[in-house]
Amino acid sequence: MKSEFIYGRGAQHNTHNRFLKHSSEILDDFLSYCEAENEKADTNKTSYLEIFPKTILNKVNSPDIGFNYSMNPYQGCEHGCIYCYARNTHEYWGYSAGLDFERKILYKSNAAELLEKKLRSRSWIPERIMFSGNTDCYQPIEKKLNITREMLKVLLKLKHPVGMITKNALILRDLDILKEMAKLNLVNVSISITSLSEQTRRTLEPRTASVKKRLETVEKLVNNSIPVNVMMAPIIPAINNHEILPLVKRVSELGASSVGYTIVRLNGAIGEIFTNWVQKAYPDRANKILNQIKDCHGGSLNDSRYGKRIKGEGKFVEQVAMQFKLARNLYLKNKELPKLNYALFDKHQTNQMKLF
After folding, report:
1. Which of 120, 217, 271, 274 is least enclosed by beta carbons within 10 angstroms?
2. Prediction pTM value
3. Rounded to an integer, what distance in angstroms lies between the CA atom of residue 75 and that of residue 107?
4. Sign of CA dihedral 300, 305, 309, 314
5. Sign of dihedral through CA atoms 70, 64, 273, 231?
6. C-alpha closest to that of 114 among 84, 151, 87
7. In Å, how far are 49, 116, 350 from 231, measured between CA atoms?
8. Distance CA 233, CA 254 (A)
9. Among candidates 79, 20, 73, 19, which has minimal Cα distance to 50?
10. Which of 114, 166, 169, 152 is nearest to 355 (CA)?
11. What is the pLDDT of residues 65-86, one digit of tens each?
């Protein structure tokens, strides 16, 4: 029996967790039984599990990443982006990088407390921190839990700068805090927009904000004097590479200060997850997509070489780079994000923010 496409999710199956010697087949047996009996089992629900980490800041040692620390109030991400490099990290928690990554979300209720403790520590010197270096801090459950908002309050109170990246319009909920931070050059925001096509967005990123909402988010942030970078990440051959010029033109018209991009790379379990997905989502060009991705990474879907893994190499990559250079010259010439201000940081700040 041909397997059906799971709408509303990115991954179409669970991959084996490489850290587990023995994996349970109970759920698969149950689903097989239901299928044999022509019954449908509702397994498309998302579950949430509270965890209690000892730290919220993660030191970033990768030489090709432009920040020193990242912080992620959530592990796993309900957005379900099929290409997400963070999927592999879910295996460390005993889950699959496939559907488990989207269905089992771990949240850190004590994140704001941990952040303030770290920033107030005697040894802390202000450094570049990225909000959502791994999973999106504005994924759907944030609307209820407000963990990201509480962390932003800490950053504003201590006047510590931060960079943020998201693909969810929920960030507009926190305009009050972001505006205060922007006045002091304490924040810049990257909005991830992979495509101007809503059909492509729904296929690649099933539970993210719509393209329209993301474009509106760029405009509203800019209109509130919050610096915005747009990330077209990743570029996927034969899916969205033809949209570079129109996308950069559109976001420049909305006031974005800069654009960035990455080339898709399918490291670890993501190679299997993406291959399974693309054969269902784009059966007519699946082989073309996979072969062109391999051409960007030395003949392999998996590329972990520093300096090459994010930008890739080869003719296709050169063409992408030329298109972005042209797009920046045409639409973003002499524009860039303002530098963050680290001089205002005050770990001894005790005044309560009356605004909140």
Report:
1. 120
2. 0.86
3. 6
4. negative
5. positive
6. 151
7. 30, 29, 36
8. 19
9. 73
10. 152
11. 777 899 999 999 999 999 999 9
